[in-house]
Amino acid sequence: MNPGTGATRRTVLAGAAALGAAFTLPLTFTPGTANAAAGDAGTLRARWHTLLTGGPGLDPDDARTAAAVARTGRAATTAAKGLDPSRTDGLFADLTSTALSNHVTTSFKRLATIATAWAIPGTPQYGDAALRDLLLAGIDWMLTNRYGPGHTRFDNDWDWEIGSALALNDTAVLLYDVLGTERLGRVTTAVRHYTPDPNLWRADRQIATGANRVWVATVVAVNAVLRDDGDSLARVRDALSDVEGSGANSVLAFNDRTDGTAGTGEGFYSDGSFLQHWKHPYNGGYGKELLNSLSRLLNLLGGTDWAVTDPDLDNIRGWVLDGFDPLLARGDVMASVCGREIARPSKQGHASAQTVVEAVLRLIPGFPGETADAFTALVKQWIAEDNYRDFLAVTDPASLVAALRVIDSPVAARGPLVAHKQHPRMDKAAHHRPSFALGISAYSSRIYNYESIQNENLHGWHLSDGMVLLYTDDLGHYSEDYWPTVDPTRLPGTTVVAGRPADAAGQRTTSTADWAGGTALPGTTLGAYGMELRAYGSTLRGLKSWFCLDDVIACTGSGITAGDGTVETVVENRKLRDPAAALLVNGTPAPAGTDWSAGLAKVRWLHLDGTGGYIFPEPATLRGLREERTATWREINLKYGTDTPVTRPYLTLWQDHGPAPAGAGYFWLQAPAASAARTRQWSAAPPVDLVARSTAVHAVRRSADGLLAANFWTAGTVRELTSDGPASVLVRPRDGKLTVALSDPTQLRSTVVLDLARPGLTVEAADPGIRTTATGRGLRITADTAGLHGATLTLTLKRS
User: Fold this and answer.
1) What global pTM score does this model have?
2) Which residues partner with 149 through β-bridges?
3) Residue 286 appears among annotated catalytic residues
């Protein structure tokens, strides 16, 4: 197997060799064996086989391993139902379409599932001769009737170039010793027909980028191993970094790189954001698949002549710590970054987080030292804190082997995440406290509102209209059929025109507004976030803020205006763990039936058992609704949804701004996980005061320490703080000092100028780009925000 001699910038990256060489083994190989075998196609094939089956690391005497093997056998039994190579219309009775390309991919995936069980000792299928012959006949049927040079692709390119190819490659590795030379040639030729090169140009003349690029590279790499083709492996190695040395399509580099090259826009950014399909936030969809596939590729190539030695490999640490960890809530990936996958039944129940955990497990052997320890601590925490879906009881045998090693390691679990993290490159924020997590979803002129392609996610209209998803100890809340049954016209936190749009109306749309984002004070759980809402398809306009101040979130809105239609702001929309969960309204229990609807006047506080409290310092008039909602997955997903009705109980609370409002607003404090007693106490003495709610500025002040949080929509003044234009600002007094954090959420301003009317202060520390000058009333702060893309700058002031 010849190494190949692709001449790119990587040939001069000798300094990065140590990092690339660290990927010397799959999870069960010893370093010596892996390095000694570099260049041996059989060894690389064995590596891939181990990634699929667990290899010699499987301990038949371990009960958890035995359970994983048994799961594999059961999955194969299910996959084999209806497999009949004598049929003329389809290999499987339910996959006969010649118009839907996913029928081709699903057929190949079922064959791969069966082949996996055939290859793992301990399954009922292991080594079965009759099953072997059935699998070989199945491959022959697909190559003769559906897939290869003699067949024209239809429907979705992904199925031909990626989905079917990945599954067929895996099946060929698992059955390699019984395929025969002629059949192996047909398999590899068929895959190369659709996916000949890692630098694959699509039918629309766009090169594969982001997750698609890594998928394509994986297809080519495994096919190359099957064909003993070192030149193709060299192209795979190089394709992960650049195309013809330009760096424009590098998977490993951040899109907001500073080396002068321009990214494609798809992939990871240095703040942890991940975009796919140009402007869709997708960490929990394509992002997790990129990490998953890349972790496999690095295991395959590590320690060989084709090891990836790009110094940008170190960016993967940032992907995991900034791009996945803040977006996981005890095993659930925040839905705001999962794209259309939320409308797939197979992706609920923390399934997406499982993929992330498995990927990081594969990465650990390749990142020695501090990064390996950080990943180990993280994985231990992720596995331990998800008591809704036991990772060890659902993962594949190979990942179980790796997980058990991590669990037995001396590295301690990280502990619960307590942080406030914003992702300005994709208009999202995450707030983590010990007892809850909260995700905020916005969009702007830079980011699309939601994705609905391939007849999926048909009711995603308001996913970015200020949706606020609360994650509590009810870990299954957004599982168990939440997305088909929730009222999609009243998603929590959103301000909307009442009514039901047409399926998929307005998807893949940017806003005409630039203001979306906020400021996060480093090392704390303090953040200001906001968006200027300009609703798609209507004249609805409004300004929305969320001031995340530790255990309290101050929710503020102003300038809510619409030319027609009734406008609502949704306080909560909760799928009830207990259908009879108590709702207290000013301390009085509301009816607990599932057919209750009422107007609630002069509301000062609400408490929903199992969820938390809501405080209205300005008594509000609300609407409340308890109902059982029945729907089918097919209503939101024609491609993968079923017609089986599902019913779930909900409680919805909203503020009705009336028809065609002009300048309406709202203000309440959300106290997730707070007890009824604490909620009542805070209603009498609110911990956060509203100090401004206009079309110029939203601002609140915390009673305990005087912290001031402000979102300036335009130039304006609030208390001691003046801004010369749009800005998000936190001013926090502590220990005799004052910390100021600021950002430009429009991402358009070159400078932000703040006047702070507090005399006698001097600078103790400041981020680069911040300068100060004394004024008659205090201090003028000038911050260079050009090119920061909404990132926060901070300075600390002290008494002179």
Assistant:
1) 0.94
2) none
3) yes
